[in-house]
Amino acid sequence: MMEYVLEFLIGCIAVEHLYILWMEMFAWETRGKKTFGGKIPADVFKHTKSLAANQGLYNGFLVAGLLWTFFIDDVEWKQHISVFFLGCVAVAGVYGALTASRKIFFLQALPAILALVLLSLM
Length: 122
Fold this sequence. Notes:
Elements: H1 2-26, H2 28-36, H3 44-47, H4 49-68, H5 75-99, H6 103-121
Helix pairs in contact: 1-2, 1-4, 1-6, 4-5, 5-6
């Protein structure tokens, strides 16, 4: 049962980062502006489009790694890969919470930390 909860949580984290990839790479001047408009002046979005796309690409690597875990048959290898990519998400979420918005901790870091805790209990 706990394995299914863990896989559901990893799937949700992957979907969240897929959304971030989409927003930063393809919708920075529209959805990005709606998301960060209160913190970033509107005229900055056009000039930071390539920087946001670069960030989105990194989120895509996180998605790829998290989804990869669903296709690994070896239990030990699957656990190591899961720990690595969930750890990356957790560290990025904590850094984002410290430097950009505390909300990032709850949206990104906390789900990854919860998944790491579940993983350690298995």
